[in-house]
Amino acid sequence: MLKAMLGEAWYAMGANRLRTALTMLGMVIGVGSVVLMMAIGQGAQYAVAQTISSMGSNLYILISGSTSSGGLRSGGGGGPSLNVADGEAIAELDGVSHVAPVHQGRQQLVHGANNWSSTVVGTTPAYLDARAWTMASGYAFGDSDVRSATRVALIGQTTADNLFAAEDPVGKTIRIQQSPFLVIGVLAKKGQNLDGRDQDDTVIVPLSTAQRKVFGTPFPGSVRLLMVQASSAEAMPAVEADMIALLRQRHRLREGQDNDFYVRNLAAAADTAAETTRVMSVLLGAIASVSLLVGGIGIMNIMLVSVTERTREIGIRMAIGARQKDILAQFLLEALMISVAGCLIGLALGIAGALLTNAITDMAIVISGASVLVAFAVAAGIGIFFGFYPARRAAALDPIEALRHQ
Amino acid sequence: MSQPLIRVAALGKSYRTAAAPFPALRGVDLSIDAGEFVAIMGHSGSGKSTFMNLLGCLDTASSGDYFLAGRKVADLDQEQLAALRNQTIGFVFQGFNLLQRMSLEDNVALPLVYAGRGLAREQRRQSARQELARVGLASYASSLPSRISGGQQQRVAIARALVNSPQLLLADEPTGNLDSHTSEEIMKLFSQLNGEGITIVLVTHEPDIAAWARRQVCFLDGLIVSDVATPPRALA
Ligand SMILES: Nc1ncnc2c1ncn2[C@@H]1O[C@H](COP(=O)(O)OP(=O)(O)OP(=O)(O)O)[C@@H](O)[C@H]1O
Ligand SMILES: [Mg+2]
To answer: Is B235 exposed, middle or buried (0-12, 13-18, 19+ CB in 10 A)?
Structure first.
């Protein structure tokens, strides 16, 4: 029975090919754009998620203000307000897993005849732990290198590519501010950060070495930045409060006095970025859904025309014993076939479009089984929803009225 | 004991019109036994088609009763009526009413699709070809209706009406669109079918055609005015 009806529906669709094709086109465009937009939206979400996980999780950045005493700015000579001892104190707090003092700046790097400008980061091994940054080759420096200010460097992938091309950087020497540094490791690739900066365009050296040989700061104990990692997302609010209280106490700030440092919550920034892309992808999907809706209405329109055109046929079928549910099923099946066929073509075109977008723009795309399933379910739903009304109209016809038609 | 196949009592049908309801049938009483061959005659507008549509369960009466094979038709639901149209009744129209985009065998097989016996497509076509052979059109099984003559189309329509082996064959002016020679062939076919035991009720304007039947019922203004038996006629 079902097979016979499928055959019939196929027959009816073939009877008016151009019209069937145009109706299907509505579905094709609708499903195609939903699939494409979902691929782009999910791709953006994926890219942001990648970036966020590359930054490290549950991070705070403490940024030095200038030192002040008794409400008076101590002037340009005061130096950064945070120091290494602050970092060590914060590391003792509950819920803090890593603290890394950071002194960074852009510097020119030289290796042989090659020149490259990179961000030089002076820090401690905790920095790599906090950012979950592993080595692609070689090994990282340890706390003893920081204590004795050895001239060793870890370089990022971008820096390695630009200074060394095909050469293996490990064991080679680079010069920063005339000082030679031995490259002991190459960092694993991280990609862009949330601001779009290349995280792999970097050189990491021990904090003490950076301060003495690269930046030449007159305040060796002070640092511009402290990177603090909480042990979990749940611990973050408590860590933030404790950290601020501790620093205010250590900096002897009185009630009512402003903090002499800034706290930047990277996790919150990451959440914002993730939320933004999520909203964007929902919007894209919503806009594409409108075309799917229009496609569905197109099906309904054609099915209504088809019912009117074929009223006499319906009458004949009823006269030879078709039940109402047979007629209902026949028209419903036709609508369903148009929408499912349109969906399949739309799916293929949508995926092709997504791959093309990826090839041309380098934009990340994600085609998930879920989005394909959703597109399919929606197409079937549309076929049934928009096919039901015309089909019910056909089924409700009175046999003799239908036979008299035309 | 043996009840009539068809029994109608005080059957009435009014059509809703813009002005007053129009009574097309005004209390018809009639019994037809299984195996009869009845011709219904009467002027145009006397209510013949209205009556046939009621007998065929295509339309519902406004008043009175209709019993088909002992069942009161007014009490049946849509599904049961569809089953009657499918299994018990074969209806032949003046205008053939074949589905133009289907082959003849698929047209004839269509009632089998709705019979719900779960026959495979090839089995259905097989039965359809048997029916087509019975009406002498075996070689046209895969043609389209538009490719054959009116007389042939009417024979296909008869084959379709017969495919579910109904007890009752209803035909509303089956020869109305055909020339006299073709009409004669159709009537021969009906006689033969009646000989095989199928009850036949047909509407016609022509006495020549009515003469093939064994009983002639005449309508006038929605009432039966005469009901006479006719002598059997020798097959030419
Ligand atoms: N659908 C309808 N609506 C209103 N009036 C109708 C309808 N069908 C038939 N009639 C009227 O009912 C009366 C009987 O019609 P019917 O078709 O039964 O006549 P008939 O005997 O079959 O005539 P003919 O020999 O011309 O086919 C006619 O007067 C006709 O005008
Ligand atoms: Mg008539």
So the answer is: exposed
In this structure, is residue A289 part of a structural domain?
Answer: yes
Q: Which residues of A touch B86 (CB under 8 A)?
A: 320-322
Query: Taking the model in full, what pTM does it have?
Result: 0.72
Q: Please check whether residue A29 is in contact with residue A291, taking contact to mean a CB–CB distance below 8 angstroms.
A: yes
> What are the pLDDT tens digits along chain B (236 aa)?
478 999 999 999 999 988 899 999 999 999 999 999 999 999 999 999 999 999 999 999 999 999 999 999 999 999 999 999 999 999 999 999 999 988 999 999 999 999 988 888 899 999 999 999 999 999 999 999 999 999 999 999 999 999 999 999 999 999 998 899 999 999 999 999 999 999 999 999 999 999 999 999 999 999 999 999 988 765 54
Q: How large is the ipTM?
A: 0.94
Does the distance separating the beta carbons of A317 and B110 come in below 8 Å?
yes
* Chain B contact probe: residue of A3, A316, A320, A327 with most B CBs at under 10 A: A320
Same domain assignment for residues A134 and A279? no
Note whether A248 and A389 are same-domain residues: no
Residue with tokens 């611990």: A235
Tell me the CB-side half-sphere exposure of residue A18, using CA atoms within 13 A.
0
> Is residue A313 within 8 angstroms of chain B, CB to CB?
yes
Q: Domain check: are A366 and A327 in the same one? A: yes
**Euclidean distance between CA atoms A319 and B84, whole angstroms:** 10
CATH class of B6-98+150-229: alpha beta
Q: Which of B236, B210, B202, B214 is nearest to B94 (CA)?
A: B202
User: Dihedral through CA A208, CA A212, CA A218, CA A224, nearest 10?
Assistant: -50
Q: Domain limits at A135? A: 66-259
Does A116 reside within a domain? yes
Q: How far is the CA of B26 from the centre of ligand 1 (A)?
A: 13
A206/A293 same-domain check: no
Q: Pocket residues for ligand 1 (CB within 6 Å)?
A: B 15, 17, 22, 24, 42, 44-50
Instruction: Tell me: do A43 and A137 sit in the same domain.
Output: no
Strand partners, A222: A83
C-alpha–C-alpha distance, residues B73 and B59, integer Å: 11
Question: Do A233 and A104 belong together in one domain?
Answer: yes
d(CA A131, CA A57): 7
